[in-house]
């Protein structure tokens, strides 16, 4: 392994595999290493045997829930916005030829003690139980205001400014009730908590437009999801990287990040007796927790900002009160259950080719706020009905302490508690720009992702 590479990438999560493909397309010689013997790292999709090995070592999976090969259960549940940035990256890099997507059937929100559908059409909005008659009129005016907004036409601004006025002022102007603000801010704009209310309205405006344009693309819901699970995403980007000369090594332990003792700059990665060299390294935070450098002056590179608790639940029925849909996004806004952070519920089923017929996989996740993480998911569990099997994990949310330009060590961010990919894409743009010294420009292609109705 004396070969020299332009870049070494550690971990085969979605972020790392997207970056690997982008660098390979740029003509960089890339070596991609993962300590696991499967693609996907924290975003992997596991069969039944792998799932039980991970959470119930030594136990056999039940015989009555289908075959091993029927399952591809995501360790982390995430959906893609039909018009979101990750979908654009898939289309622009032509990775869509390796993947097929299915639309998520419905988007729901928990409000006033019950589950309600987030309206997908004007007819649904008129019938929605989320708002009373007068509130529907006010909400209609609010959405018309957003849809008609043109930056260069003051006549569309109604005396408001998206850049100078915060979201509270915009909501107040239209007289929207707290419950309506809740579902707009959390189920449509997908904010994690309520601090967005004090920030300029532009951010929330952009998020709502993304939601409504994604909804308009295929109807029913704004979300799409790859058949056979999220583990297909990193594998598809890995294939693209390989076409451009990228090399992959799975099941390869990473024992040390080697840096120059004088300058602190990255030199290579040691695995056992072998060291491989490159100009820079990109990796997920788990590969950098030990820090770098000599033991007496070891430099820390990552910090933990929060913890996420996630539960994978196997059900023998769809989530109650969601119209018997085969797949669902359900958001419990934080102040509906006296919390600081939202709780996310994502459900998929055999319709997405990830489990046996008549089984449903629901994931419940949130940011940990107490010393009893699993109890914090209870509002989500209570909406699921009887749970056949449950696997709970608590994982750190980590981020780099520096931008990497000095050391040539570029660290990605952990995946958060959200059930969509938009925050990941911001990270891809940021890391690409820092390590390449230029912004990522996506080439325009017209075709969309292949989506089954």
From TrEMBL:
InterPro entries attached to this UniProt entry: FAD/NAD-bd_sf, GDP_dissociation_inhibitor, RabGDI
Lineage top rank: taxon: Eukaryota
GO cellular component: a single term: cytoplasm
Entry's Gene Ontology BP terms: protein transport; small GTPase-mediated signal transduction; vesicle-mediated transport
One MF annotation (Gene Ontology) recorded for this entry: Rab GDP-dissociation inhibitor activity
Family of the protein in this entry: Belongs to the Rab GDI family.
Protein name: Rab GDP dissociation inhibitor
